[in-house]
Design a protein that fits this description.
By secondary structure, this protein is an alpha/beta fold. Helices cover 42% and strands 17% of the residues. The chain has an 8-stranded mixed beta sheet with strand order 1-2-4-3-5-6-11-12, with helices on both faces. A two-stranded antiparallel ribbon has the order 7-8. The longest helix has 19 residues. It is globular and about 70 Å long. The mean pLDDT is 90.
């Protein structure tokens, strides 16, 4: 709390910036160059002063999340960390999802968007293999892409908070119980009517999952009104949650049916279509799985379960770090935990 009269002008400026002004810290994404820009597959290469001599890195975000998750703000940017450690990061941006995208399915990502990006990056680096880093569902997309394409030039996969075992994820327990009774017909009907899960619903859902943060936000502001860095971190998360796009209808039905209700990732066979089944044991590259016990969206046990099904990988490691679902990727302690583990894994 403000204790000195001399602090009042500074506190007032911060209150004004948060309430009516332009914010504490304007968003300044790391400069990048567009490699190619096609519907739901814009590939960006982050700018470096000098060419990298290390393997390129592809960052794969999940669906219904802005790719800013990898570049939240200074000090909370995996992109900037990769640049600092001499690597060349790339990022796939899926853009907004509308009713016109209602028929897009997971195979669009696992058998086109992600593999195409990997091949294009490899070609741009004289055939070098690509290290792939995916957050949340992005890690699962990378695993399914690698398992479905034995010829992909993938050096490794790092999956941060990947939802392998839905039985260990309490936030989807109500959906699983309801689906056991209805067969998921309510989700099928809603996604067909609306063409998917609208962005507004996704944003509300993320705030509900972070209910405690929303509840304590006024107290946090009061306690940190003179701490611009803390306020900027809060502001960056608020901005991140306000920018989330939606899910295409068919894709969300696949997630609900195959991942949440049937938990197919734990069977080793994931059905994308009746004629397209991916066997996770066919993934052969090294895999690093990162999880956290304090992650309410994908608990450590749900992520660690990947050790049971990625039986064909040359190496599979699990590392536990502190933080929530976004915190393990871009929290204030991620540099000393998650990013350090990733750096060591890629260096090997």
């Amino acid at each position: 709390m403000v204790s000195l009269v001399g602090d009042l002008p500074r506190a007032a400026r911060n209150v004004w910036a948060l309430s009516f002004g332009d914010g504490i810290e304007p968003y300044a994404p790391t400069p990048s160059t567009v490699v190619y820009d096609e519907p739901h597959r814009c590939l960006r290469r982050f700018d470096r002063a000098e060419p990298s001599t290390q393997r390129p890195v592809l960052l794969v975000p999940p669906l219904a999340v802005t790719p800013a998750c990898f570049d939240l703000r200074p000090g909370q940017s995996l992109v900037q960390f990769l640049l600092e450690t001499g690597r060349q990061p790339y990022l796939i941006d899926y853009g907004e999802m509308t009713y016109a995208d209602r028929d897009l399915g997971l195979e669009e990502w696992t058998h086109d968007i992600v593999p195409t990006a990997i091949r294009r990056i490899s070609d741009a680096h004289d055939g070098a293999e690509v290290d792939v880093v995916g957050w949340s569902l992005g890690g699962i997309l990378a695993v399914l892409a690698g398992a479905g394409h034995a010829d992909l030039p993938m050096a490794s996969i790092t999956a941060i908070g990947p939802p392998f075992d839905q039985r260990k994820t309490m936030t989807v327990a109500p959906l699983r119980m309801l689906g056991a009774v209805t067969g998921g017909r309510e989700v099928d009907l809603a996604t067909r009517v609306f063409g998917g899960i609208p962005s507004q619903i996704v944003r509300i859902g993320f705030r509900v999952q972070a209910f405690q943060r929303e509840l304590t936000r006024p107290l946090f502001v009061a306690r940190n009104i003179l701490d611009e860095d803390a306020l900027a971190r809060m502001e960056a998360i608020d901005r991140f949650m306000s920018m989330m796009p939606g899910y295409p209808g068919r894709l969300y039905r696949q997630i609900h049916r195959s991942m949440i209700l049937r938990n197919e990732l734990m069977t080793g066979s994931f059905r994308l279509r009746p004629d397209l089944v991916v066997e996770t044991a066919k993934l052969t590259c090294p895999v690093l799985i990162i999880g956290s016990r304090t992650d309410l969206v994908v608990p450590a046990a749900a992520a660690r379960a990947g050790l049971e099904v990625l039986t064909g990988a040359s190496e599979v490691r699990f590392e536990e770090v502190p933080g929530g679902h976004l915190g393990i990727l871009a929290g204030p302690t991620a540099r000393e935990t998650t990013w350090r583990v990733i750096d060591e894994f890629l260096a090997r």
